[in-house]
Design the sequence.
């Protein structure tokens, strides 16, 4: 493939595949559009957890242990805030704080989230294009047995404990794709859309739930491939499998395939799940079996190469 | 003395005498009213340098080396901000940041600066009353050969290098004393006002420049004593002596005495400056010679005791 690739990503899993794609594709050939449904204002600062995870990961600065924040982080701010009786349920490291303070400054002077993200990415030495899915606020609300919870309340404060019955994306009707995402969708050179191994309900759904993106996928003329975030019946990271179970879906790659259904042309599943390939093919989509757990940069690169090759084949078949 | 003492304070020198007064006086007997003319918003946060220095000092957490900020501070935030190309001319440590973030949160929900200061003081374990001079914004502007500079621009960014020709306190006409300062001024039990060894132009002038405070001093019925911030012709800390020279004043304790003039009843000068005592007495005020350089807590306590004894004598004389 020589054209452009659009990757749709949430946090850790998305960031790791994006890292692989960035290691394979020249900067002008990749757009990573990132979920902003998890964004929220905390301590007066605009926090964009998925954008930050993707940025830090592409910059080689991600904290691999936590899956969020910066490597070599320090916690003096948080400790002092605790002493003052401040809110400490959402942990902001000293280094990470600089990102939010700078983002706030840029938004305050009227920059869009896209512009702020471009400036932060450049400052972190990232050459590939990371864009928010939208510059308009979309806020994921998790409907649970304890009522509707703002995403971070559910995810961090309540540690994903409440039983999930559904999701709502406040603001999504009014939110259009960011200029970078819109440009990628309109790009004549677009050759593939990759749905990264991110949580389909809370990371991918807000992106593909925007009308312009949904319309694009429905009328697509490029292959759309998803990488399953579920391996061996478990999510690599996060509550995806728990959510699937609570929503009555099969907690495996077949469940993911059913979820995406006609919106994708093919799915990459893990070697562990090879036995599910026939059933997934039975849904009318192509399947590629690969090693999908990305522990290292070379894992990320290998999965990116495999995914791009798979998409290229699907693109060639369609011609 | 059994009554109430009102101390007027700026940063380091004021904080150190306030620490001494707090070690001598029970909490209900002391109000420390602190200059807010240096306050400014930085990186979206409300920074109150003198209030913080007084709070940190009374809490035993002041960074004695720098004269600002918290002991054992770390700088991860600032380093990360520098990498992002953010504004680093005013240094905010990781721990110190928590104070500003909490203050911002409290102001955002409609608390006054007095209320925020009381809450922060309590959280830091301070039992004595530290109050801002006013809850209304007063902003010190330094008139220089490079034009009018906001105080922190002059003080930190330009390192006090421009030549000073005067000062302006924007907002002072509309600013009334904070409730705590007003209560101290109206307190029937008030027995003395202590002007701490702070910069007379930029730390004390904003406080005593408020109409209600000026009127109180003009009509006072309690002794007002000032501790000279100039020792041996030099300021212990900060640009006071440089400012005096540029404004054409004698850069010594006599210059300070002339500056305060009829607004004070007595001045505490350092042993080094004992020779100036007759000239200062010639201005019509009492003089006490003492060891005024406060390196340790016991220095602070000794100077506080000396200053209070001096004020008590002046009060007794006046009866």
Sequence:
């Amino acid at each position: 493939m020589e054209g452009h690739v659009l990757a749709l990503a949430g946090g850790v899993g998305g960031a790791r595949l994006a890292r692989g794609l960035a290691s394979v594709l020249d900067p002008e050939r990749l757009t990573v559009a990132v979920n902003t449904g998890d964004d929220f204002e905390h301590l007066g600062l605009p926090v964009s957890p998925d954008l930050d995870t993707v940025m830090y990961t592409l910059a080689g600065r991600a904290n691999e242990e936590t899956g969020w924040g910066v490597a070599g982080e320090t916690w003096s701010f948080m400790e002092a805030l605790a002493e003052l009786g401040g809110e400490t349920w959402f942990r902001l490291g000293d280094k990470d704080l600089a990102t939010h303070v700078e983002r706030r400054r840029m938004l305050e002077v009227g920059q869009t989230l896209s512009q702020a993200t471009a400036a932060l990415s450049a400052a972190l030495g990232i050459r590939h294009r990371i864009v928010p899915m939208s510059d308009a606020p979309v806020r994921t609300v998790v409907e649970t047995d304890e009522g509707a919870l703002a995403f971070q309340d559910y995810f961090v404060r309540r540690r994903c404990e409440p039983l999930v019955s559904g999701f709502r994306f406040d603001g999504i009707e009014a939110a259009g794709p960011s200029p970078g995402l819109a440009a990628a969708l309109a790009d004549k050179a677009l050759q593939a859309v990759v749905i990264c191994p991110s949580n389909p309900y809370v990371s991918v759904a807000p992106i593909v739930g925007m009308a312009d993106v949904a319309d694009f996928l429905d009328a697509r003329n490029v292959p759309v491939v998803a990488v399953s975030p579920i391996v061996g019946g478990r999510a690599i990271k996060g509550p995806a499998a728990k959510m699937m179970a609570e929503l009555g879906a099969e907690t495996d790659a077949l469940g993911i395939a059913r979820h995406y259904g006609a919106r994708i042309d093919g799915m990459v599943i893990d070697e562990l799940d090879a036995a599910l390939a026939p059933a997934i093919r039975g849904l009318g989509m192509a399947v590629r079996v690969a090693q999908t757990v990305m522990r290292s940069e070379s894992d990320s690169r290998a999965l990116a190469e495999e995914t791009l090759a798979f998409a290229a084949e699907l693109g060639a078949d369609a011609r």
